[in-house]
């Protein structure tokens, strides 16, 4: 990672990419390192991101403990939490 890139705007990043044209190799990070060798966690995150996850079909696994929680008020949206000042 080039230090100049940290916190840079998209225009600055494009300019830096042009400046370092031949020296930079672009790669996409495809391996999940944080949960390496923990397939249960990788799979549940992948399913959730793809919108295929159904919590009612899930049971606990080696790395994930499924705990049901009762909530009295199902209206979890609180406008004050998302207010922009």
Q: Can you describe this structure in just a few lines?
A:
The protein has two helices and no strands. It is mainly alpha-helical and 85 residues long.
Structure description:
With 85 residues, the protein is mainly α. Helices cover 26% and strands 0% of the residues. It contains 2 helices and no strands. It has helices at residues 10-19, 39-50. The model has no long low-confidence stretch (mean pLDDT 73).
Topology summary:
Layout: H1 10-19, H2 39-50
Mean pLDDT: 73
**DSSP E strands, number:** 0
What oligomerization state is this entry in? single chain
pLDDT < 50 stretches: none
SSE series: HH
What is the count of distinct domains? Answer: 2
Beta-sheet strand percentage? under 5%
Class of secondary structure makeup:
mainly alpha
Taken from the alpha-carbon principal axes, the silhouette is elongated
* Rounded Rg: 21 Å
Portion in helices: 25-40%
Largest sheet: none
| Separate helix tally | 2
C-alpha termini separation:
34 Å
């Amino acid at each position: 990672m080039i230090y100049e890139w940290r916190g840079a705007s998209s225009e600055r990043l494009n300019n830096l990419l042009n400046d370092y044209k031949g020296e930079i190799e672009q790669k996409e990070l495809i391996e999940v390192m944080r949960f390496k060798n923990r397939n249960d966690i990788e799979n549940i995150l992948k399913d959730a991101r793809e919108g295929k996850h159904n919590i009612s079909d899930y049971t606990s696994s080696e790395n994930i403990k499924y705990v049901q929680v009762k909530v009295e008020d199902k209206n979890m949206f609180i406008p004050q939490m998302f207010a922009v000042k």
